[in-house]
């Protein structure tokens, strides 16, 4: 980890969930645009990711935190403040899923993803928005999902958390109109990452499908939208965008059933 220089004129970005998948690519995209980074994740692999990001010629501070723990969320923000620098971009991206039938899934795991996906996002957004509104500038990215617009059987709690963060991002974004602070809801469709393995979805049609988007591509599209101050961005291929648009038009219960077929345990072909 390189110590950030408080006297630097380079912009600073905080990215959560930056050790793998979409978050690592968000951090890489910001590094290539000249941002120094504070990156956060739970496991020690974060330090390897930070070393990789430093090769982009940027300064990276890695903060290992369990964002399901409010004290760790605060410790992460304290690390940003301790850098002595204003934070220009905050990407609230860390998140996880739980697949399976709600009657059978583990309650502790589901309460954990509510804490991670929803509570830590609100907690860090509070700190970031207060700091940014005081300065009259800043950009916040909230990783939502296409799942925010379509409920899903067999991912009931996960889909609910994404609907929550999506609405939350849109609501605070509306409050902040004209303030110089923007909030962008980032809506990836299925994207190659560790998400499906961690959520126990590898034996599902959704998890096994190769037709997923490239995390580098979706991150690049998200960072462009973030820096343009867009209110939301649906990322990925044309097929993902079309499926997202159709999903949003589908009646909720039908959408939940259709999505649920792809996420049904054992639905992976062959
Ligand atoms: N992949 C998709 O198809 C897809 C689609 C729509 C939305 N999303 C969203 O995209 C975001 C990134 O997911 P991904 O697909 O890139 O999955 P991923 O590769 O599993 O990355 C998840 C990231 O979150 C971090 N994280 C998980 N639990 C944490 C905790 N308790 N405390 C701190 N950090 C934690 C992980 O770090 P550790 O390894 O240290 O735990 C990792 O850096 C999530 O919000 C997800 O809901 C993904």
From TrEMBL:
Record-linked Gene3D superfamilies: NAD(P)-binding Rossmann-like Domain (3.40.50.720)
PROSITE patterns associated with the record: ADH_SHORT
Keywords: Oxidoreductase
InterPro entries: NAD(P)-bd_dom_sf (IPR036291), Sc_DH/Rdtase_CS (IPR020904), SDR_fam (IPR002347)
Source organism, top-level taxon: Bacteria
Pfam families reported for this sequence: adh_short (PF00106)
Family affiliation: Belongs to the short-chain dehydrogenases/reductases (SDR) family.
Protein name per UniProt: SDR family NAD(P)-dependent oxidoreductase
Gene source species: Kineococcus glutinatus
